[in-house]
Every structure is written in structure tokens, then in C-alpha cells.
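Q: Got a minute? One more chain.
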Amino acid sequence: MRKIATLLLVIPLGLVAMQTIRQQGRMFSIDSVAIKAGGSLTFLNDDNVPHNIASISKGNEFNLGSQRPGASTDVTFTAAGEAQVFCAIHPRMKLTVKISD
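A: Always. Here it is, folded:
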């Protein structure tokens, strides 16, 4: 008779959980968020209009382009420090991402 080995892999939730930043009412769901370098945020357009989420902060530059309602995109932040995130279409939409080592 053959024996079958079972492997149970336990991953702490903090290592896989991704925070979701919602865009609704032409605003971000929060003003500020803290993550570790190498961590990611999901940007979800829960609004009824397109958004163009971007950052020009050194080491964490990105531009999602036109993100249609219902779309979501993951962004990884690699450089420690602060990243200023904004919507290129709606200038009052601002988010500070605090990235620690």
C-alpha cells in the first residue's frame, strides 16, 4: 500500500493581503495608507466616471492610464519613503502612500 503525504502550507494573512483603495465620488476612499516596500495596493474604480491614477514620486512612478468604471489594477511600491498618488483627471483626488523598509 502506498502512503500519501499531505503538505499544509500556512501563509500569514499579512503577507498576502492586499489593501484596496476605492475611487468613488471623485475621491479616494482614504487619504493616507502605510505599506512595506515591495507591498502592493489595488486601485478599484468604484465610480461612474473614468480615472487616471498616477504617481511621479521618485522610485514609485506609475501611470494607470484611463481606468474605466469597475476596473481594478494592482500597483507595487518598491522604494521606501512617501509616494504622492493622484488622479490626472480629477486634481482634488490625492493619496499619500507611506512605504517603510
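A: DSSP finds one helix and nine strands in the chain.
Q: Perfect, thanks.
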